[in-house]
Amino acid sequence: MQAVAIAASRAFTQSPRFPASTHFSLVRTLSPSRIQARTMSDSTPFNKIQIQRDDTTFDAYVVGKDTAPGIVVLQEWWGVDFEIKKHAVKISQMDPGFKALIPDLYRGKVGLDVAEAQHLMDGLDWQGAVKDIQASVNWLKANGSNKVGVTGFCMGGALSIASSVLVPEVDAVVAFYGVPSSQLADPIQAKAPVQAHFGELDSFVGFSDVTAAKALEKKLKESGVPYEVHIYPGNGHAFMNRSPEGVQRRKGMGLADEDQAAVELAWSRFSSWMTTYLCA
User: Fold this and answer.
1) Fewest CB within 10 A of the end CB: N or C in the chain?
2) Which 3 state secondary structure label does DSSP give 70?
3) Would you call 250 helix, strand, or coil by DSSP?
């Protein structure tokens, strides 16, 4: 497993290519590996709920004031882990306050290394994930939130933008370093305001590099919705992950840049965007 992880890390940082399909791959050279996914443990201050959509039920984790505007917070390829929970808590504590909800798109599984995360993401039903997002938005609106936004990181960033196209109940979107494939959702058809954040040094071609960011900006301009696309000089992929565990994991994957000022600027822009469109 250690050899696979090392090979995966090298592939992640040196050969980021994405196939032209509904799904994307952060690693292309992985050997088949055994999943050793763990179940996410309940963690204060979250309230664990269950949401039903169609013929399936999934867990979600909610934090924040009941009557506050809602924000659906979407995971990276790792799953609902320590980093996405830290993001959700931070969002819930922003002025004037939001109610953050994390839907468990992986149904309780969390990748412990690059190989596992890739395996989990490869198995994701993307159209089903969009349905999970829609059900999450509707749950928030039925439980005290007049308006609801969606945000996400990496895989979740791509799904966030997809929700602006495919989920009419969404009132605003903030996406971090991820663009959906045109087969899933074309941003030119966005219906909700979109703010997007990218690192200048992000090397995931066609998904979150500068070329992808500028292509997204062009499509959002054509869509007619309010939009902002921000590119952060000197920053790479996943630059928002600043917890001690997240920093260690990023360094292990060759993503060693540290720019707290960029993180704070991005959060400030996030707060301003969501306040404008969810609190009016």
Assistant:
1) C
2) strand
3) helix
Angstrom distances, CA of residue 48 to CA of 104, 121, 267: 10, 23, 25
Annotate 20-57 with b (16+ C-beta within 10 A) or e (fewer).
eeebbbbbeebeebeeebeebeeeeebeeeebebeeee
Contact (CB, 8 A) for 210 and 47: no
Residues in the chain: 280
Centroid of chain to Cα 155: 5
**DSSP codes joined into one string, 102-118:** EE-TTTTEE-SSHHHHH
Closest CA to 203 of 10, 9, 12: 12
Two tokens, residue 155: 């895989």
**Token pair for residue 30?**
């992985």
DSSP SS3 for 228? strand
Q: Three-state DSSP class for 257?
A: coil
Q: pLDDT tens across 171-208, in order?
A: 999 999 999 999 999 999 999 999 999 999 999 999 99
**pLDDT surpassing 80 at residue 124:** yes
List the beta bridge partners of residue 151. Answer: 73, 174
Q: Cα–Cα distance between 147 and 141 in angstroms, integer?
A: 7
| pLDDT above 90: residue 94 | yes
- The answer to whether the beta carbons of residues 104 and 78 sit under 8 Å apart is no
Amino acid at 119: H
Which tokens go with 190?
A: 């966005």
Question: In this predicted model, what pLDDT tens digit does every residue of 200-256 receive, in sequence order?
Answer: 999 999 999 999 999 999 999 999 999 999 999 999 999 999 988 888 888 888 886
